[in-house]
Every structure is written in C-alpha cells, then in structure tokens.
C-alpha cells in the first residue's frame, strides 16, 4: 500500500483534525522526527518508507519490541503505537523514555515508518482503548464518559452482571493476566450495576469527579499509584475516598493493549498484513 495513502486514511478515520495532544516533553533534537509531529504531537512520527508491506502494532515503542522487529530483518514496515515513547516504570522517576537515536537511525535504514495515535485512539469509538478493554471484559457498553477536552471523551460507562467489587477485580485479573490493585474506598457491592472505565493513565481529578457526579462506586483504570510528587494522583485518591469510589488498577500497558490488538483488524481491513507485538506490564503502576 502507498504509505501516504495509509497515513491520510488514518488521519481521516481517527479525526485528527479535531484532536489535540502534547508530547512536548520528548527530545526533538534529531533529524528523524517529522515536522508535523513536532507541532501536532500525533500522527506520523517517522516518515521512512514510501510503501507499506506490513504493520506491527504496539502499545509502547519499547526498545525490546524495536529490537524484535530488527531481528526479523524486514523493510517497508509501519510501526503503529498508542504512545510516542517507550515505557519502563521502576517506581522512581518519569516512566517514559525517548527512542534512542541509534534506534531511530536503524528504523530509517530499514525503511520502517512510525505512526502513533494517543488521544485519537483514546477517543470513544470502535477501536478506542476503553471500548476495547470493556469488550475484553465482556461488559455491556452504555455510553461514553470522561471529558478529556472539548472534543474528546476517553472513558466508558458500562453495565456489569457481577454484584461484588472483588468479583470485578477478579474479572480484571483474568482478563489482563496478572494481579490488579483494588483501593476499596466504597461499599463491597456494586451500585446500580454500573462501572466506569478509563484505560491507561486515568488517575486524574477530573475523572474521579465525573465518576462521583454520576453516583458510580466502581472505577477501572490503568495507573493508580499515588505519587506524592505528582499532585493530580493524590487529589484523585482524595476525591475517590471522599465519594466512596472503589478504584481498580490494571497497569497502564495492560488496560490499553486491547486497542492495539484491535487495530490489527483495522489494518487487515486495509489489505495489509498486521501483527500485535506484546509488551511489558509493570505492577509498579499500581
């Protein structure tokens, strides 16, 4: 497939014209990142090939996954990611890291382009992070929630047949394949059969406030660890406690991977071979 045709299709299908994002904390001191990404912070990050023969989807462009692609000795590839940076949460410090320059050089050499959708993939829709997680959980989608900006809602209100909060925690653990953290701030019984879900880094005050306003007592997200040096996470837990909202954390990676798995079908619908490359989850997120 002509690379530019695919980029234009992604731009249109995911409505980038009406989305905003910010990766201004990345290191742009290199010759590889496209001019458009330097200003728009979404879409085409690396423009390295004119033809796309295959797509690899990842949640984070981690070094280990890039190395795996290199080891396959392929070219004319599109790397599609939900994030623009790698992720390694080892408790201390900022977990995101820039793709090293030597990897950027190798991607250029092997004609591997890089396209990322963060807020456009979070936006409520068929392939979105929260919708994909809810579908994996087998819950019934009711409506979108969690107003990220004026044009974007990143969460889902859903209905659960389970009655106990710890049953929902166990369902999460079965779905993501590892332990999940429950902050039991509310009643043990699910209220009105409703669960609020916002995959990824959803431990922000505006999310907890909206859950509280809706009278829901169970909220699922990815990153839940209170960070004394990052006040929004502390305020998030304060609001959740005050309004008796049980919070279930499933790690940043594990709650968002299902959207990147779903994107395999998107690219296959474009008559492109596509494969999801599993990444790494960190219980330190919890």
From TrEMBL:
It comes from the Bacteria. One of its GO terms (cellular component) is cytoplasm. This is GTP cyclohydrolase 1 type 2 homolog. PANTHER family: GTP CYCLOHYDROLASE 1 TYPE 2 HOMOLOG, NGG1 INTERACTING FACTOR 3. It comes from Lacrimispora xylanisolvens. The keyword Metal-binding applies. Belongs to the GTP cyclohydrolase I type 2/NIF3 family. A divalent metal cation binds at residues 82-83, 122, 252, 256. Transmembrane segments: none annotated. It holds the Pfam family DUF34_NIF3. GO terms for molecular function: hydrolase activity; metal ion binding. SUPFAM superfamilies: NIF3 (NGG1p interacting factor 3)-like. Keywords: Hydrolase, Metal-binding. The keyword Metal-binding applies. Gene3D superfamilies: NIF3 (NGG1p interacting factor 3)-like (3.40.1390.30). InterPro entries: DUF34/NIF3, DUF34/NIF3_sf.
């Amino acid at each position: 497939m002509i690379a530019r045709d695919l980029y234009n299709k992604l731009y249109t299908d995911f409505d980038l014209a009406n989305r905003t994002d910010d990766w201004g904390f990345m290191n742009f001191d290199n010759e590889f990142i496209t001019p458009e990404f330097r200003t728009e912070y979404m879409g085409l990050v690396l423009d390295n090939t004119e033809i796309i023969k295959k797509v690899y989807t990842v949640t984070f462009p981690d070094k280990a996954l890039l190395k795996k692609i290199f080891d396959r000795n392929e070219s004319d590839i599109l790397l599609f990611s939900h994030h623009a940076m790698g992720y390694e949460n080892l408790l201390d410090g900022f977990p995101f890291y820039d793709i090293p320059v030597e990897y950027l050089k190798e991607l250029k050499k092997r004609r591997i382009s890089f396209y990322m959708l963060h807020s456009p993939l979070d936006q409520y829709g068929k392939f979105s992070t929260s919708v994909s997680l809810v579908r994996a959980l087998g819950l019934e989608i009711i409506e979108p929630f969690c107003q990220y900006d004026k044009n974007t809602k990143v969460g889902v209100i859903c209905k659960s047949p389970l009655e106990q909060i710890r049953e929902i925690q166990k369902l999460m653990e079965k779905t993501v394949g590892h332990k999940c953290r429950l902050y039991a701030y509310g009643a043990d019984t699910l209220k009105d059969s409703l669960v609020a879900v916002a995959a990824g880094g959803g431990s922000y005050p505006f999310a907890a406030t909206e859950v509280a306003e809706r009278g829901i007592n169970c909220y699922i997200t990815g990153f839940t660890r209170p960070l004394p040096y990052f006040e929004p996470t502390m305020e998030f837990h304060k609001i959740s406690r005050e309004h008796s909202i049980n919070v279930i954390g499933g790690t940043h990676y594990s709650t968002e991977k299902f959207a990147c798995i779903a994107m395999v079908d998107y690219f296959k619908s474009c008559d492109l071979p596509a494969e999801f490359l599993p990444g790494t989850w960190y219980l330190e997120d919890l």
